[in-house]
Amino acid sequence: MRISSKIAKAINDQIAYEASATHAYVAIGSWCERTGYDGSAAFFFEQANEENTHLLKFTHYLNNGGAEAIIPATEKPQGKFNSLESTFQVGLKSEQTVTKLINNLVEVAEREKDRATYSFLQWFVTEQIEEETLFETILQKFEVVGRDKLAIYQIDQSLASIRSEIMTKRVNQQQP
């Protein structure tokens, strides 16, 4: 399989965004950890691992397709936040951006009639539906439970179980 230069450029752009998202989630996790939100810190550090895994999937895809994966430098991510809720708003916005970028990649693959890349991208399409839903669900908790100190504590503590449920669901979906 040979990857076209248009596909390679689009995927390298995605690699750059995945690298930035990885660093952004580490920065958010770091802020949460410093602020005492241990559940949220663990959640965002795991999100960073997930984004890094995506970066590697794209990197391997290009390398194995005869194209060059370009690993970019990234800008310093935001490191201070107004509230725990605002960290999840930043996360949702990032995931919505990734969804748009993945959809654009799918369109490039369709225009290039690159069936292999189109097929490869379908996993990311499904992943983004799950990611946006996850962040929306967490943000709903602020509406339902509230924003006082006890409510925020409960939301923070619930993140470990939310993450566990999502990971269990993903594993179960991957099994034949």
Helix-strand blueprint:
Layout: H1 5-35, H2 38-64, H3 84-111, H4 115-145, H5 149-174
Helix pairs in contact: 1-2, 1-3, 2-5, 3-4, 4-5
Name its key features.
176 residues, mainly alpha, Ferritin, 5 helices, elongated
What does this structure look like?
By secondary structure, the chain is an all-alpha fold. The chain has one domain: Ferritin, core subunit, four-helix bundle (Ferritin, Up-down Bundle). The protein has helices at residues 5-35, 38-64, 84-111, 115-145, 149-174. Helix 2 (38-64) packs parallel to helix 5 (149-174), helix 3 (84-111) runs antiparallel to helix 4 and helix 4 (115-145) packs antiparallel against helix 5. It starts with a helix and ends with a helix. 29% of the residues are buried.
